[in-house]
């Protein structure tokens, strides 16, 4: 770890500080890959700013000497209603990659999800790290590959699956185009200069293992064909003809906790549960897919209203503060899911950086609960949050 990293992490007071550290630590094309969104990045921005449309309404003079944040997700006990969202290509951001993230999550008793497009084999991750784990699955044109994943996840002891449904085609990430981010990165003068300024980005790193889709590379012939853009890769492998019948198929094949990730409406949430899912992740892929989509937080009350008490409703996207989590819970979410907040930490300082991101968010969560006069996340109610613009 570079000298001074721990000191810098300790001085980070919030997720925005970790983002600044990540920006300094990474070559520009890699930072932009994490930080950016689709088209005009309207949805990316809206995901976070929408939280400011809600006010927290505190109860005073309640005894808050013992705060409880424990809950359950995907049928697993977790220490707090915050899960780590799946993110592909994690090794690009730090050589410790998914293992660092999963270890920090396990240390905090939080649920970790591994992406199909991760850079660590699911078996290796399960063997190395305890704690509650979910595998994020895509349905490939080759259904055999998807069925193989289900069998591998069962054998490795994953507790749940999250089926991502908001990527029928790749989103238009213009920052990546401008930066020439392909797999591996195109070596233009601009990109060489930007990578050369970062010691961990030697030429071999640019050419090799930091882009290994460890879980699929044995199957996907196209990858062996040489450099190609991420957009082409995704466009080529995912099945655009997916329908709800495929959700039914996956639910039956898996037979355990399953969340549909990437839906936005009460109607689709009901269909997901009707097809055998046990939960939903209300998400627009962190603003990386459909620009113009609403913020997840604005959809939570309607989705919970449609599903009733049972299923997991996870608010995914835009969470940067513990108070955001409290707002989502008061509106009806079971938990929130975070992507960039822990990736900024990872880029800033590997496992210690992820640990810092989680510590900050959990401390904020506990402090906000105490200030709101609520002793247990399970006791948050609709009356604890008020929409400022008649939105919920
Ligand atoms: C993602 N996300 C994502 N989702 C998914 O289902 N499979 C994946 O492989 C990825 N990969 C990925 C990479 C990067 C760099 C980011 C930032 C995001 C989306 C992710 O799971 C989650 O939905 C968002 O990150 C949530 O928004 P915030 O927390 O980043 O605002």
UniProtKB/TrEMBL annotation:
<dbReference type="InterPro" id="IPR037396">
    <property type="entry name" value="FMN_HAD"/>
</dbReference>
<comment type="similarity">
    <text>Belongs to the FMN-dependent alpha-hydroxy acid dehydrogenase family.</text>
</comment>
<dbReference type="InterPro" id="IPR008259">
    <property type="entry name" value="FMN_hydac_DH_AS"/>
</dbReference>
<protein>
    <submittedName>
        <fullName>Alpha-hydroxy acid oxidase</fullName>
        <ecNumber>1.-.-.-</ecNumber>
    </submittedName>
</protein>
<dbReference type="InterPro" id="IPR012133">
    <property type="entry name" value="Alpha-hydoxy_acid_DH_FMN"/>
</dbReference>
<feature type="domain" description="FMN hydroxy acid dehydrogenase">
    <location>
        <begin position="7"/>
        <end position="390"/>
    </location>
</feature>
<dbReference type="Pfam" id="PF01070">
    <property type="entry name" value="FMN_dh"/>
</dbReference>
<dbReference type="InterPro" id="IPR000262">
    <property type="entry name" value="FMN-dep_DH"/>
</dbReference>
<keyword id="KW-0285">Flavoprotein</keyword>
<keyword id="KW-0288">FMN</keyword>
<dbReference type="GO" id="GO:0016491">
    <property type="term" value="F:oxidoreductase activity"/>
</dbReference>
<keyword id="KW-0560">Oxidoreductase</keyword>
<dbReference type="InterPro" id="IPR013785">
    <property type="entry name" value="Aldolase_TIM"/>
</dbReference>
